[in-house]
Amino acid sequence: MSHLDNIPSTPGKFKMEKSPYIHRLRWHSSLTKLTFWSLVFLGSILIFFFRSPSSSPLSSDPSRRSLSTYDWGGPAWEKRVRNSARVRSRNGISVLVTGAAGFVGTHVSVALKRRGDGVLGLDNFNNYYEQSLKRARQALLERTGVFVVEGDINDSALLKKLFEVVPFTHVMHLAAQAGVRYAMENPSSYVHSNIAGLVSLLEVCKSANPQPAIVWASSSSVYGLNTKVPFSEKDRTDQPASLYAATKKAGEEIAHTYNHIYGLSLTGLRFFTVYGPWGRPDMAYFFFTRDILKGKSIPIFEGADHGTVARDFTYIDDIVKGCLAALDTSEKSTGSGGKKKGPAQLRVFNLGNTSPVPVKDLVSILEKLLKTKAKRNIMKLPRNGDVQFTHANISYAQRELGYKPTTDLQTGLKKFVRWYLNYYSQGKKAAG
């Protein structure tokens, strides 16, 4: 049983005009237009940088707000940061965990802390899903001794300050805008968090001295429309089926660039449908549980010609083991002061369970565990970024990380349901 179970993406040829006068007029007109548009562009930049925060259209989106709005800094704050990041075991590491109040972030932070590593969390607590769940995870982390700084990865000033206070040996970068379908509603949040946010973090890490080794969350969604299974790290990943997937693929290319230019040690982890206690309410297993208990119908998608939709469901404890193994096998970055001194480690691994399960079977397991019959609404798989199946080849992770998942879906869902019933029976309000 997990220790967290019960704790409350050909120019045309140029033809010279015959009349020099006409040529001069057109040249003058072009110059005037160029000057005009240059001034417009410059003015736009000035307005963007100097307008008040309250007038910014971004200020209404909590997932994009700057960390300058948060309260941080000062002797007492620095002391909490140092205490949380202090290594307490002989061969421990000091880790900055971004997205620490997220599902995977919480579990990884607790596991690191409990084995004696120094851990400092960072999270912006956006409202993509119920914030009360994130705050409950934060409380759990605080009880474990992990301080979560409320801030955003796009706040370079905060990130630089954190590295000034603590010389982190490692970064576990889990902060991201998650969810495939939400990208159709708010695409800018994905670019802001998954691309700009990653670059902001890497910019600070490249200049840190010493540079930390970085492990970060990519996604199985990068395999997109691939039909060869199981998915291998050697397969093409240039056919994303969603914007979320495209941002994660972009992240992998950005990681390659920073590794090549600055000598940052980078390891990407492609997670396959992670589930378990303290999970995300936007995931199917979570809202299926909620809606089955409420007597609401749940959507069961099927592919073309009634094809089965299946997922490689991976239990959170197995994912945590993979994350810690990636940190433990990370080599040191080779740069100093933003300059590369030699080749640096660059890896990407699949972390899955290798046993895809049809979604309809997931529902059957939940029905037995909840002792309630589900109202199934069979629907055609929509063109919203979801793919029909995922299946991980984990041989590379097995060889390099010693990664070996041990939890089957029946066992994992049993632990999730136990947590869910306990958590929401404590007066918590279920999402939706």
TrEMBL record:
Pfam families: Epimerase. Keywords: Isomerase, Membrane, NAD, Transmembrane, Transmembrane helix. Residues 95-332 form the NAD-dependent epimerase/dehydratase domain. Gene3D superfamilies: NAD(P)-binding Rossmann-like Domain. InterPro entries: Epimerase_deHydtase (IPR001509), NAD(P)-bd_dom_sf (IPR036291). It catalyses: UDP-alpha-D-glucuronate = UDP-alpha-D-galacturonate. Its EC number is 5.1.3.6. GO terms for cellular component: Golgi cisterna membrane. It is found in: Golgi apparatus, Golgi stack membrane. The chain crosses the membrane at residues 34-50. One of its GO terms (molecular function) is UDP-glucuronate 4-epimerase activity. It is a multi-pass membrane protein. Belongs to the NAD(P)-dependent epimerase/dehydratase family. Homodimer. This is UDP-glucuronate 4-epimerase. It comes from Momordica charantia. The gene is LOC111016152.
